[in-house]
Specification:
CATH class: Alpha Beta
Radius of gyration: 17 Å
Strand content: 15-25%
Shape: globular
Strand order of the largest sheet: 1-2-3-4-5-6-7-8
Largest sheet: 8 strands, parallel, barrel
Order of helices and strands: EHEHEHEHEHEHEHEHH
CATH superfamily: Aldolase class I
Structural class: alpha/beta
Number of helices: 9
Helix content: 40-55%
């Protein structure tokens, strides 16, 4: 299952603003957006999830719903992202269609190992640094912790770095071994950053591909 390397996590002071920002992200070239309305009751979320699905289908952008896996199924979203306090990945997987993505949040190496047993399609590992977008923030990781965790895991499951990430952080994070990054404020504050994030992430992918080709040549 293909997982985009750049995830935009929606922001806004109101649900309507989240939807407007998702549209702006899609216009700017986002390949995956996550609708994150944690404070909104599930019964009130369906309307906005349907609006987000309509927008993302128009732009052929993948839509991930944060937390509410029943909403993800009802709207035929591309998947679900589960926080550490949300539903179990196995429970969500059993409820969803086989083609829908299941992502989970981790903060430590132990978290990652436990999640891998539940076979998520990707793990959101963070936070990289302090972020105002999340309450009850887990301990901040920084570059060194990502390197240590990725080196110990040696897993093919995509690891997405998340938490206060800016454009300037992206190359350093990719060098630790993470698959991609999730950004919120860095994109909401300037949607023109989306193609710049893509450029950095694609440069890294191209470099890795060339390195693999060269290593085969000299074997």
């Amino acid at each position: 299952m293909f997982i985009p390397k750049l995830h935009y996590i929606s922001q806004g002071h109101t649900a309507e603003e989240h939807i407007k920002n998702i549209r702006r992200a899609c216009i700017a070239g986002a390949t995956l957006v996550q609708l994150r309305l944690k404070s909104l009751p599930e019964k009130n979320l369906l309307k906005y999830a349907e609006e987000a699905r309509e927008i993302t289908l128009q732009f052929k952008t993948r839509l991930i719903i944060n937390d509410y896996y029943k909403i993800a199924k009802a709207t035929k979203a591309d998947g679900i992202h589960l926080g550490k306090e949300d539903a179990c990945a196995k429970v969500a997987r059993n409820h969803l269609e086989s083609w829908q993505i299941v992502g989970s949040t981790a903060n430590t190496l132990d978290d990652c190992k436990k999640l891998l047993e539940k076979k998520p399609d990707y793990i959101g590992l963070g936070p990289f640094r302090f972020s105002k977008t999340k309450e009850n923030l887990s301990p901040v990781l920084g570059l060194k912790a990502y390197s240590v965790i990725l080196s110990a895991l040696q897993s093919s499951t995509p690891i997405i770095a998340v938490g206060g990430i800016t454009l300037k952080d992206t190359r350093g994070l990719i060098n630790t071994g993470v698959y991609g990054i999730a950004a919120s404020s860095a994109i909401t504050e300037d949607f023109n950053n989306i193609p710049l994030f893509h450029q950095i992430l694609n440069e890294t992918s191209t470099t890795e591909a060339i390195a693999k080709i060269n290593s085969k040549i000299y074997l």
